[in-house]
Amino acid sequence: MSQYPNSHSPKRPNDARSDEFGELQGVVDSVFSANQRMVSRLDVIICAEANDLSDDLLEVVGLLPPGHYTRARLCDQLNSTIAARGWGRSHGIVS
Questions:
Q1: Which end of the chain is more exposed for a tag (fewer CB within 10 A), N or C?
Q2: Which residues pair with 39 in a beta bridge?
Q3: pTM of the prediction?
Q4: Three-state SS for 27?
């Protein structure tokens, strides 16, 4: 029997990097790779899904408010959600 009841996988300490560490940064880099100045929420969601992000990271992206984003604004929004969940060390922040 697992030492982690009601859990499919062990919980990581808050300072441990997850297997998905840095993947959200790849999405940000991808959507702004063609010298884009602004991207839509839909652009980010499609890119995240195409990159096969984990459910946790897809949830972070899905919480973006509707609209268009500069890179700085997108990073602020994503980092706010990551910070609110306490995932900065485990999943990484974006820039």
A1: N
A2: 69
A3: 0.77
A4: helix
Instruction: State how far the Cα of 21 lies from the Cα of 94, in Å rounded to an integer.
Output: 10
Contacts for 49 with CB less than 8 Å, ≥ 6 apart: 58
How far is it, in rounded angstroms, from Cα 67 to Cα 86?
25
Judge whether 73 and 38 are in contact, CB under 8 Å.
no
pLDDT bracket for residue 86 (50, 70, 90): confident
Q: Which two tokens stand for residue 74?
A: 């997108």
Q: Where are the domains of the chain?
A: 23-91
Q: Predicted confidence band at 71 (pLDDT cuts at 50, 70, 90)?
A: very high
DSSP secondary structure code for residue 6 in this structure = T
Q: E strands, the chain, where?
A: 39-40, 68-69
Per the document, the length of the chain is 95
Instruction: Tell me which DSSP letter residue 3 carries.
Output: S
